[in-house]
Amino acid sequence: MNRIRNALTIDVEDYFQVAALAEAVRRDDWDSMEYRVEANTDRLLGLLDQFNTRATFFTLGWVAERSPELIRRIQKAGHEVASHGYSHQLIYNQTPDVFREETRRSKAILEDILGEPVTGYRAASYSITARSRWALDILAEEGFTWDSSIFPVHHDRYGMPDAPRWPYRLITDNGYELAEFPLSTLKLPGYTLPIAGGGYFRLFPYWFSQWGLGSINRQGRPFVFYLHPWEVDPEQPRLEVKWLSRFRHYNNLDVCEARLNRLLQRFDFAPMGDVLQEAGLLDTHSLSPESPTYSDGQEQAISARKFVRTL
């Protein structure tokens, strides 16, 4: 029996852009902070190359503007590049117009660098929730065909606890369809536990993460694992924040890379787009003539798409 290929994802953002540290760093201060994301992303690229493993790099437009050669290195190494928005703001704190502008801007930046369409998206801090479902329609209208922003858990900052746990075709409020790869969870009696990576990967003992992710594969399902470049950087500057934010961000940074090394040996991984394609969730056709149109300055190749429902 062939082993299941899981989605390996990297959210390319710097340490000072994380929502947990927003109390210590204003958006206007970003340009003055020590810039470490490029070196840390290269560190992950080197590790993935050792294991001949390809991943999806959800990249901030803010980072891509400053490090276009990094984006080209990611592409040249055979990885998939997707959008992580522009400025890592929580979507439910934005207006639809601001979200659309940032989404369009970040997509154009990445596509100009790569010379190819960018069709995948992940929201900052998984902030597509019941309060911001409208963002899914905007993603479809701006040319995205798949998403990985929904975390089917209860959390103080994100979550759609009643959402499906496995990859599926999501119907937006306006009737578009997107392939959705929700963040992986472990079903316990009376509770749904996040197990997809990031801070949970650092918080839980490694054996528990391996067991939990393995249990998803034993059910015949692929899981999605995510990590940030700053999570393999224990030397990053320490910012003064409240204890919970400090715990979430700095806990076990010194062991994360070694744990990732073990995980890459244990499981098979591929870019998220490939995993969705294998699941038969990426067959698309152009939107109908009644669908929204674009301004004269936009590329026709970035037209929105709907999915044909076949499931």
Automatic annotation (TrEMBL):
InterPro entries reported for this sequence: DUF3473, Glyco_hydro/deAcase_b/a-brl, NODB_dom, PuuE_HpPgdA-like, XrtA_polysacc_deacetyl
A Pfam match: Polysacc_deac_1
GO terms of biological process kind: carbohydrate metabolic process
Residue span(s) of domain NodB homology: 27-224
Bilayer-crossing regions: none
Alphabetized GO MF terms: hydrolase activity, acting on carbon-nitrogen (but not peptide) bonds
UniProt xrefs under CDD domains: CE4_PuuE_HpPgdA_like_2 (cd10941)
Gene3D superfamilies hit by this protein: Glycoside hydrolase/deacetylase
Highest taxon listed in the record's lineage: Bacteria
Protein name (database record): Polysaccharide deacetylase family protein (PEP-CTERM system associated)
Lineage, broadest ranks: Bacteria, Pseudomonadati, Pseudomonadota, Gammaproteobacteria, Pseudomonadales
